[in-house]
Write a structure and sequence with these properties.
about 475 residues; mainly alpha; two-stranded antiparallel sheet
């Protein structure tokens, strides 16, 4: 009898320690991974010559500089134009005539403008702000998955696959796309909070509005994919009121942007621009109204000195878009995933912790992508922007966490996936060196007339652009 009582006491003690220690150990491991992320970002900055910075030095060559350099140019043009265009980005043509870019906000441009208003002539503050947003967004991703799955193992595995993804994640640390994680996971975490207790609902209802604004500031199609993912999460949790707040947050963000555009180009031009943009960017409207006259659309944009968004209408169906997605995915994603692509088997782990959340965000993102197809598919998949990494890494995390609960065989399989992933990332890092030669045209950038610089002169020479 005493032996049984002793065994029972030992078991109770173990259970107590497991409940107390496991979360502490997991959170400590998560913080270590975040520290690794900070070190990796700093190393990337030094290796790509973004950091440190010497006064008068040329701007550095980075494999993904296009959008970041364009933000520097936008900041200079905002200084020149002031508020006469309501801070709508100005992209003059080859003759120097002003043309307004009324579509995506491109969040780095206004940030660089605010930096320049302080008198600072450097790209470093923008680089640091982007890097901070990048790291903060990744931490939000960990908290989001932890909240959705309720399992430290899933959240920790997700964070591991996320921070160790070199090609699909780390390379964007100084790019405008660094803000996507704050937008995506800020919205998703707020949505999950709105599905919780009354106190958490209030916090989620407050945070969803700035999070939606960040998502929209990244891109319209990105905001649609994030918003649809959030709505899918509310559907899984059967929380209609949370869905209303999600819609309201994105509606407010969208309305603020439209008021800005109306102030710059007027109500009539805005209405026509919205209609034409919807025609060339959304396949649904094209199927309902027929193919538009692209020549007439282009002429209208030229006459009104507005930049036409580089998208083209399509009347393809769901099957064609599915084939397009797969063709681009196997060309631009699988080669950089290697054998670690087995992590996608996490989609088959029905009932596992985090699986419903995985399916919800995948379906939601797919719906948002289809709304802006085929443009959104080309952009998100062909150019390997970070968005798709979220469900891919979560699928791998769900699979690894499931295997860890299957005894020694499962543990061995999970370790094999982790080791394979690290080997693949090392190979990608080795085969994808950062460009180190500075752009001659970018010497003393902030002391040159801004008219000397156009997007065409800033095309990157790094390997990634050539690969696509």
């Amino acid at each position: 009898m005493e032996a049984e009582r002793s065994a029972e006491i030992v078991q109770v003690s173990r259970n107590f320690l497991d409940r107390r220690l496991q979360p502490i150990i997991a959170r400590g491991a998560a913080l270590c991974l975040m520290l690794l992320t900070v070190v990796a970002v700093l190393a990337l900055g030094v290796r790509s010559h973004w950091l440190p910075y010497q006064q008068g030095a040329n701007l550095p060559a980075h494999p993904l500089p296009g959008e970041t350099f364009q933000a520097l140019i936008a900041g200079e043009r905002y200084l020149e134009d002031g508020t006469k265009y309501w801070l709508i980005e100005n992209l003059p043509d080859e003759h120097g005539n002003d043309r307004l870019y009324t579509h995506n906000i491109n969040i780095d441009g206004p940030i660089q403008y605010l930096i320049r208003l302080t008198g600072v002539k450097s790209h470093v503050p923008l680089a640091i702000i982007n890097a901070c947003a990048f790291v903060a967004g990744i931490w939000l991703g960990y908290l989001t998955v932890l909240r959705a799955s309720g399992d430290e193992r899933v959240a920790l595995a997700f964070l591991f696959f996320f921070v160790t993804s070199y090609y699909f994640n780390l390379l964007f640390a100084f790019n405008m796309r660094a803000w996507q994680w704050l937008g995506l996971f800020g919205v998703l975490l707020s949505t999950l909070l709105m599905c919780g207790s009354d106190h958490e609902k209030r916090r989620g209802q407050l945070w969803i509005f700035p999070a939606a604004l960040v998502a929209l500031a990244c891109a319209y199609d990105f905001a649609a994919e994030v918003g649809m993912a959030a709505l899918a999460v509310t559907a899984v949790n059967r929380k209609g009121r949370a869905a209303v707040f999600v819609c309201a947050a994105f509606a407010v963000a969208l309305a603020l942007r439209q008021l800005q555009v109306i102030g710059a180009i007027g109500l009539a031009a805005w209405a026509t621009d919205v209609w034409y943009s919807a025609l060339i960017k959304t396949a649904i409207l094209t199927r309902l109204t027929g193919m538009p006259d692209l020549g007439a659309i282009q002429s209208w944009y030229e006459a009104h000195h507005i930049v036409r968004f580089p998208a083209f209408p399509s009347s393809d169906g769901l099957r064609q878009y599915a084939h397009l997605f797969w063709d681009l995915f196997k060309t631009h994603w699988l080669p950089y995933m290697g054998a670690s692509a087995i992590g996608l088997a996490g989609y088959l782990c029905v009932g596992a912790r985090g699986w419903k959340f995985l399916i919800a965000i995948t379906v939601g993102m797919a719906a948002g992508m289809l709304f802006f197809a085929p443009y959104a598919i080309h952009f998100a998949v062909k150019h390997a922007v970070p968005l798709i990494l979220a469900p891919v890494a979560l699928a791998a995390a769900v699979l690894v966490a499931t295997l860890l609960s299957r005894g020694w065989v499962g543990l061995a399989a999970a370790l094999a996936i982790v080791i394979t992933h690290l080997i693949v990332q090392y190979d990608v890092w080795r085969d994808f060196p950062l460009a180190r030669d500075p752009f001659p045209r970018l010497a003393n950038f902030f002391d040159q007339p801004i008219k000397e610089y156009t997007p065409l002169t800033l095309e990157p020479s790094g390997q990634r652009s050539q690969a696509h």
